[in-house]
Every structure is written in C-alpha cells, then in structure tokens.
Automatic annotation (TrEMBL):
It comes from the Bacteria. Belongs to the LysR transcriptional regulatory family. GO terms for biological process: DNA-templated transcription. Pfam families: HTH_1, LysR_substrate. This is LysR family glycine cleavage system transcriptional activator. GO terms for molecular function: DNA-binding transcription factor activity; sequence-specific DNA binding.
Length: 301
C-alpha cells in the first residue's frame, strides 16, 4: 500500500520553522531563503487543508494542528537521523557529554579513561555545567542531570540517588573539641548552607530538637561540589552524598560520622534523546556506564 506523504522538502522546512518558531532561522539552518521556506510551508498547508502557523508581523506561532504535527515531525526526523548514523558506522566520532559539576568532578572525570581505552576511536568532550542542556539546539549527545528523572522526550537512567548525610574534615573536628558522637553535637559546629531545608529534615530524622539553639553558620554555597570543597577545607559541616567522596574518606580528608542518609527523592541521571537511543556512540557509552551502578537503576522514558 502506497504511503500518503507530502514532499520531504516541505516537511524539512516545516519542522525547522516549527522548532525555531522562525522562518528566518529555519532558512539559515537549511541553507535556503526565507521566501523558499515560506513557499514550502504554504505547499504543505495547501495539502493539509488547514493553516499550520499563525503569522504575526514580527513572529510566527503554531496552530493546534501545527503543534501536534510538529512534535511528530521532529521525533520522526530524530529517528531517521539516528538510523542514518547507525548505518554510517560504529561509535566513531566525537561524543559530547554535558554533566552537572558534582558528578563530573567526583565520578565522571575520574573514570572516563576506561571508556576511552575501550573506544579509542571516539573522542570524548566533557562539559561541566549547571545549565540544563537543550538537545534540540545544542550539539550535545548525552548528559548527566540532577533531578526527579522526568524529562519530556528523554530516556533517563538513575545512576545515584541524592541521599544526604553530614560530612566534615577531621581537622575541623579536632579544632572544635573532637568528632561529633551524637547528631545534636553538630549544633556546636559551623554548618554549610545552614538555611537549607535539608538540614532541618535531617535533624528531624535524627530526632534532634533545635528549639532554642543558635545554630552556628558556615558559608552559603550553591552546589554540592562546592559544599564538599568547603568541608574538605575545614570551613564547616556539609550535607553530602557519600557515594562521591569515598576517596576523600579513604584518604582521611573527610569523615562521615553518622550512617543514616536522608533521601530527598532526587538523583543523578544519565539522559539522552529517546529517538537517538540507537546511535552507536550513545549505545556504547550506555553499555559502559550502567554496569558501574546498581542493577536496580531503571530507565524512565
């Protein structure tokens, strides 16, 4: 049975214009003129029998039909692109990874060498950033994100749960009269990010009342990697995820005085566009990284 499809040129013009919400940017991406983009979209609208864009003086927006069709077009082109890449070769090329700083510094940078040894034909580019990657507009293949694991259009594999517990430098403990024995002992220590809600939740889990306590405050920092550095430097006690600091504990730079971890319902996830799951270099990285973590790390689409 013959497929009913519009011209590929019209589909490409529409998908690019819908993704950018700009005929001009679509023309730049496809190496066409703005008039040619407009003409191709007009042909598509005539075939459909309904407008796909609302055209304003300075900008365009999608109609309801256009928005629905755009999502399907983009997903289809992504699948076609992935299939083409799979056809073209193995995992050769450049693998671009975007990672949140904590995971990049305390795990990925320390272990990427083994991936390179297994795949010498693939050049890895690792970027450490707190900014959320836009896979549609940036040349990034995969990312490590912190969050709840729900991102539209992405497959997310849980690697590490973000469970917090206090950690500190033994030098700080020595300076302030010894290592804390009970959770309430921490109230005599400077606490990094003391205003953060996780401190209150951890103390509550440990049945420590803070009523009437003047909690000592350390520096206020914006991310776990910086909080870990502050703790190692003896600036205060930080709530950290112990998984990342095994080397620091083994070397005596950090101590985890209490076993209980407070689960905050978030984690570090390995993510990539679902439509590109079979691209060889993404598949190779997935096959390498997942065995390093718990088998219970489930993929969420």
């Amino acid at each position: 049975m013959a497929r009913s499809l519009p011209p590929l040129s019209a589909l490409r013009a529409f998908e690019a214009a819908a993704r950018h919400l700009s005929f001009t940017r679509a023309a730049e991406e496809l190496g066409m003129t703005q008039a040619a983009i407009s003409y191709q979209i007009k042909l598509l609208e005539e075939r459909v029998g309904a407008p796909l864009f609302l055209r304003g003086r300075r900008q365009v927006s999608l109609t309801a039909d256009g928005a629905r069709f755009s999502a399907e077009c983009t997903a289809s082109f992504e699948r076609l692109s992935a299939a083409y890449a799979d056809l073209c070769g193995s995992s050769a090329g450049v693998l671009s990874i975007s990672s949140v700083p904590t995971f990049a510094s305390y795990w990925l940078a320390r272990n990427l060498g083994s991936f390179q040894l297994e795949h010498p034909e693939t050049a890895v580019q690792l970027t450490s950033t707190r900014r959320i990657t836009d896979f549609e507009r940036e040349p990034v293949d995969l990312a490590i994100r912190a969050g709840a694991g729900q991102w539209t259009g992405l497959t997310a594999h849980l690697l590490v749960a973000v469970d917090y517990t206090p950690m500190l430098s033994p030098l700080l403990a020595e300076k302030l009269g010894g290592m804390p024995v009970t959770a309430s002992d921490l109230l005599r220590f400077p606490l990094v990010n003391t205003t953060h809600e996780w401190w209150d939740l951890w103390f509550s889990m440990m049945s420590v009342s803070q009523a009437g306590c003047d909690r000592r405050t350390g520096p206020t920092l914006g991310s776990q990697d910086l909080e870990a550095m502050a703790a190692i430097a003896g600036q205060g006690v930080s709530l950290l995820t112990p998984f990342f600091y095994r080397d620091e504990v083994a070397a005596g730079r950090l101590v985890q005085p209490f076993a209980p971890l407070y689960p905050i319902g978030r984690g570090y996830y390995f993510v990539y566009p679902t439509a590109r799951r079979n691209v060889p270099k993404i598949r190779a990285f997935r096959n390498w990284i997942l065995p390093h973590f718990s088998a219970s790390s489930l993929a969420k689409a």
